[in-house]
Amino acid sequence: MPEPVSIDPADWVCPLPLREMKRIVLGHGGGGILSEELIENLFLPAFGSGGGPSRDSAVLTVASGRIAMSTDSYVVAPLFFPGGNIGDLAVNGTVNDLAMSGAQPLALTAGFIIEEGLELDVLGRIAQSMGKAADNAGVSIVTGDTKVVGRGGADQLFVNTAGVGVIPDGVEIGPERARPGDHIIVSGKLGEHGVAIMSVRAGIDFGTVVTTDSAPLHRLVAAMLAAVPGTGAIHALRDPTRGGLVASVIEIARSASVGVVLDEAVIPVPETVRSACSFLGLDPLQVANEGKLVAFVDPAHSEAVLAAMRARPEGVDATVIGRVVEEHPGMAVGTTPFGTTRIIERELGEQLPRIC
């Protein structure tokens, strides 16, 4: 099978002219010649030989055992932001959803809701970014769908991705498995994705460019599992996207009927993120991330897991930030740098809407 060609999205040009059109028209979603040209001349070159959205379904060969499935929709605004765009975000996000159950990704689907008038150049750059991100993650985009809606119906572009992955034998990971005594580990610095979005959405200069942390995490998870084979030491994993760290740990605490204590003095938050959140009135612990994970790990094995994480580029800043307790089930409390304790509550809604 030929390797997909790696192309810088910034250098993308349409391989063949789509009837001299520079923007999406309603006919591109009508199932006729324009639809065919859009798929054959834009999406398939971007996604390589994995199959792409020319198929209504894909046939996959999987090893006997268990599979994980996930689906997510991406409506981030703006479409492009420092370090990424809606395309690579969609690929990485779905890969990470699979990884949080311990699965290694096998294949993805891609669905596009495209607003009439979107520039084909913009769509092409996003598709190329998706293909490059999939190639980087070692996964294929094997089938998909496109729909075109009238102006004002989709705010340029919405993307839906679904994924399937294989869970290795003996791996049992789930939020209900967290237990008192577990150490809580984050894989790195928090809040970068949310601040990257806000920097361009609000046009605010924070004195430096904050880039998204969007990245695939399945290789990091595989390294963590390999460090403690057969122990079942990794009880729960979560990627702290919408709602950030706080939403992730509270959701796990509620699922397992346990309490969580976080040491706020050691939680890794970059100073640029902390300053930006202070300026915007946001809690950095509730700002979205797209390339970080939270792990609940048996304390007897947490040092081995931590060492394995720090040996990977995705986990070089991994830190133990708290523990699981029997008290206050379903709640999180934080010990502050001043030695006080506070209840950490989730936001009623979203601090930053349309962040992913």
From TrEMBL:
InterPro entries: HypE (IPR011854), PurM-like_C_dom (IPR010918), PurM-like_C_sf (IPR036676), PurM-like_N (IPR016188), PurM-like_N_sf (IPR036921). Residues 55-167 form the PurM-like N-terminal domain. It holds the Pfam family AIRS. Gene3D superfamilies: PurM-like C-terminal domain (3.90.650.10), PurM-like, N-terminal domain (3.30.1330.10). Residues 179-328 form the PurM-like C-terminal domain. NCBIfam families: hypE. Belongs to the HypE family. This is Hydrogenase expression/formation protein HypE. It comes from Mycolicibacterium komossense. The gene is hypE.
